[in-house]
Each structure stands twice: as structure tokens, then as C-alpha cells.
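Hello,

Our lab assistant flagged a job as stuck in the queue for most of the afternoon. It eventually completed. Since we weren't sure the result was trustworthy after the delay, we are filing this so someone can double-check. Below is the sequence as submitted and the structure that was eventually returned. Let us know if re-running is recommended.
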Amino acid sequence: MAEYDKCTGCGLCSEACSMSMVLGELSSPEEKLKSCSKVMEGNYSFKDVENIFQCTKCQACEEVCPQDINITAAIDDARERCVLERGVRFAQQRQVIKNAVKYGSPFGKAGSRISFLEGDYPETSDTLLFIGCFSSYMTKGVARASVSLLRKLSVDFSMLGEDEPCCGYFIYNTGDHKTAQEMVDRNRKLFQERAKRIITICPGCTTFLKKYYHLDMEVEHITEVISRIIQDKGITLEESGEEVTFHDACNIGRSLQIYQPPRDIALSMGYRLTEMERSREKAICCGADGGMKLSFPDLALKVGKARLEGVPHGIDKLITVCPFCLQNLKEASLKYGMGVEVLHLLELLDSKLKATQTSSSSIPRS
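-- returned structure --
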């Protein structure tokens, strides 16, 4: 039975879906499944195409679905059918695919991929730090802080520098799975030649490498690594005492169940953490993922606004670990006058952690 035939119309998914919150019932996961069915049968309208692409693939609907429907897989299959069999693409998607194939980055001729770096980078190690396109070009402070932190914590790692490729996550979300798979096959060979373990910065890269690459090596998000080191080395930090809230990134939260490590890092800095009403597996998406920021930037900001409306009363600082979330929530806060300062956990930690607080021992393994 196809995924879209299992739906009983209970409506629970609508209550969890950020698209439903912003656009109403016609953009609910149930309606998206109907659009998926029409696409797969070849009898669909542009509205159906728009419906399946107006999805962040955040998986919140799957958390509450009593039928255990894999709605994200249905969305992916329908997108692929639209693109590869029907030639459907939005203008922005065409450009991103062209850029990634020609320049190795969805941002095209965006200058040096490592302009964020201060000094040289290590080229040989069993552990590879994978920066990702978004941090390399859009949120360079996050990339810079990540490199700085691993150095301060005496982690032995290498980088690919200007030769680092796009992981293909951007391309996969456009529905062009064929091009994405070609990139995956090429990158898998490169990774296996260069390392035995990968540390990722971007949650999108993390999920894509862990779930789609089928690598015969460990892939860890950087917050898992850093949280373990802080605990194992007993590192103490100057306490902040500030009250903040935390936004869970869908790609390491619901996708990979990485909830506690970033919180442990925030707590180690002395932040007083007040959770949003919808947090962890119930968290609302920031609005930027799944290709939304690319194809529907204004809608992505409206979803970001909906997320920021969940910040607890009296708190004006929100911490996240995702560069996509960081960028979109910052823009939404500014555009809608929300007054919420959006901060990245790694940049905060790097500003507080001094090299003298760490030992010279190598990374501990758990």
C-alpha cells in the first residue's frame, strides 16, 4: 500500500505542521499526501506541485501520525517524479543545481570556500571536519568558531579546504535525486580515501551523510563531540547566568535524536535554559529547510515568525546549532520586529572557551 493510501484523515498531523499553521488546512500533511498521490498517478496541477514543495520535511507530522506514515518519503518520491519525469523545476532550483554541478557549491562563484579561516588548516588526519556549503559562504562565523573550538580542545582533524564538495543535500531537496546521487557517489569515494571519521557542522549535512551516504565510517555532529570532551575533561567555563531558550534543529533533532548534547553545552556555560512549549520532538521547524528557503523565501520567514512566537515570555535570546535556522530566524526576527536575538551555540562557546582551559590530550572516545 502506498503511503498516501494509509491516511485515515485524523487531522493530528495538521496540529504539528508549521505549514498548516501558516497556510491553513489546504497545506496540511494530509493534503500534501493527496497531492503526492496525484503526482505519482500523473494527474496533477501546479497547485499539487507547489504543495509538495511547500514542505520543510521537518518530520513533525510523522511524530504524531498514528498510522506511522512516512510522509517525508512520499514527498521525496513525488518531488523526484515531478523533476525527472515531468521536468518540473522552479527557477531558483535550476540555478542551484547548475551551480553545484559546475562550481561544487549551490552558491556558484561565491569566492573562496575557506575565507572564514584564520591561518592554515590541517590536511591530514583520520578525522575530517566537513564544513558544509552554508557555513562556508553564508554563516562564516559558525565555520570559524567550529575550527577554533576543535583546535582549543586539541582535536586532531583535517579539512578539504577549497576542495570540499557540496554534500548534495541542497540538490536532493529539489527532487533531482539523479544529480544528487552522482554527487554522493563521487563524494563517498573522496571521504573514504581521506578519513575514517567525519565531524559535521551543519545538521542538514549530518542527516544526509548518515542516512543517504551509507558510509563505512562514523559521522558525528560537532555538538556530540564537544559535549563529550567537556564532560570527560571536566572543563569549567565562566558562568553566564543568563536565561535563554533553545531551538531544536529538525535535522539533528527529530531526524537523528540529538537533543541533549547541545543543551549540555549551553548548561556548561551557565545559561539558564527555559524550554519552548514545543521543543525536542515536538519542536516547530524554523521554516528554512527542505528547500523552502530556496524556493519560497517569504514563506520560510513566515514560518520563522511562527517559531519565534513560541519564545517564552520575558526571554529575548534564542540559541540554535543549525546555520539554516540561525539565518532564517534572524531574518524573521528583524523583518517582523520580534525583538529576539538569535545566536549560534558554537560561536557563544568559542567566545568563552580559552585554550588554556583545555589539556593537550587528544579527543576522548566514548
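-- support follow-up --
The delay was a queue issue, not a problem with the job. The result is valid. The longest strand covers residues 127-130. The chain has 18 helices and seven strands.
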